[in-house]
Design a protein that fits this description.
Helix content: 40-55%
Bound molecules: alpha-D-galactopyranose
Number of helices: 12
Largest sheet: 7 strands, mixed
Shape: globular
Strand content: 15-25%
Radius of gyration: 22 Å
Distance between the termini: 31 Å
Order of helices and strands: HHEEEEHEHHHEEEHHHHHEEHE
Length: 377
């Protein structure tokens, strides 16, 4: 570029500052996007495997986001570009693309069309720094960001709750995981400053501040969540069976532990986790004390390990190291389990040191973890 052209571009940028997302789009598609949107990943502080039982959850958004940019391309095909894809993917709404990643985007477009939107062929650019495959809802962030961007582009009348519901349908129909609605509600409605207490039956919700002086630490155990989809669907079926044995529509409806304790061993333990976990969420939401909040997180991990059986030896080891560390109030696996990340509530001032010390001890135990939140600058 000549000196004069460069100066002209600098002047133009100063007059119309462009986002990083728009510039990434321009690099690939040689034109500016008509709409842009973003959505965060989430970490769940308490309330694991309760959402598909109509229960309570307490997630908080993480700083990492997925950004989507779009424009009408005037051709007969959609063109999708993302760092996660080896090359651009071309598709129409009539046939699902082969690439797993692209099928989430396709699923959201199809669901928006079913809502009555007329969707012209688009150029779509996706960029994300939400860690994938560790239980921080990178797929929910993608789905919510795509739907938000479509809303912006086509002036669709979708509110944030409807966006979360459509995003959940995309996950169920196109990714084959019979998930609850926590991740998509968190990505669509939560922020990083406060946790979101959500009743997944009524979708009533309210923000909950973290105990004063505390902050959220998330570490990756380095273990891929290999059994996540099959194990997850199996747990869900086990809960449905326990509810059937108890004569209720969902485990949320059970009011006392006694009938649960009378069930056969497996449904008893699955239902007991859900019952006690719901109670822990409601207690934590009323907690102003970090130590009390942390104790509830520790109890949640024990319940997920022993009653719900979704932990792994590596997650147990990382959680154990965190729980023993000065400056940590409590720790547990987070997300569906079977690998992935752990979350801890720490003293705000100690958080960097805790991360360094625990990752070093975990390394000496023969494992390779990494810091996910706070994210590196
Ligand atoms: C996954 C699902 C959520 C929720 C959690 C477990 O993240 O997508 O709906 O069930 O697992 O709490």
């Amino acid at each position: 570029m000549s000196h004069v052209a460069m100066e002209a571009e600098v002047a133009a940028r100063a007059e119309h500052p462009r986002s990083t997302g728009a510039r990434d789009f321009e690099q690939v598609f040689h034109g500016w996007p008509e709409a842009e949107a973003q959505a965060p990943g989430r970490v769940n502080l308490l309330g694991e495997h309760t959402d598909y039982n109509d229960g309570f959850v307490l997630p908080v958004a993480i700083p990492q986001q997925t950004r989507v940019a779009m424009r009408r391309n005037g051709t007969a095909q959609f063109r999708l570009h993302a760092a996660e894809l080896d090359s651009a993917v071309h598709f129409t709404l009539h046939a699902a693309p082969q690439e797993h990643f692209a099928s989430y985007v396709w699923g959201c477009l199809c669901l928006a069309r079913e809502e009555g939107a007329e969707i012209p062929p688009l150029d779509i650019h996706v960029a994300s720094d939400v860690p994938m495959g560790v239980g921080l809802s990178s797929s929910a962030a993608l789905e919510v960001a795509v739907l938000r961007c479509l809303r912006e582009l086509l002036a669709l009348e979708l509110d944030d709750v409807r966006i979360a519901q459509l995003a959940q349908q995309a996950e169920i129909q196109f990714a084959g995981v019979r998930c609850g609605i926590m991740d998509q509600m968190a990505s669509s409605l939560a922020d990083t400053a406060r946790a979101l207490l959500l009743d997944t039956r009524s979708l009533e919700r309210r923000p909950v501040p973290l105990p004063a002086g505390s902050a959220v630490l998330v570490l990756d155990s380095g273990v891929a969540r290999s059994l996540a989809a099959s194990g997850y669907n199996q747990r869900r079926a086990e809960c449905e069976e326990a509810a059937r044995l108890l004569g209720v529509a969902s485990l949320r409806e059970v009011e006392h532990l006694e009938p649960i304790e009378a069930l056969p061993d497996l449904p008893r333990r699955r239902a007991r986790h859900v019952f006690t976990e719901n109670a822990r969420v409601l207690k934590a939401a009323a907690c102003t004390d970090a130590a009390a909040f942390g104790a509830l997180m520790n109890a949640s991990h024990a319940s997920l390990r022993d009653d719900y059986e979704v932990s792994t030896p590596e997650l147990d080891s990382l959680v154990d190291l965190l729980q023993r560390q000065p400056g940590v109030h409590g720790a547990r696996l987070t997300g569906a389990g079977f690998g992935g990340a752990c979350v801890a509530l720490c003293d705000e001032d100690a958080i960097q040191q805790v991360a360094l010390d625990v990752l070093e001890q975990y390394r000496r135990a023969g494992h390779q973890g990494r810091l996910l939140v706070p994210s590196s600058p």
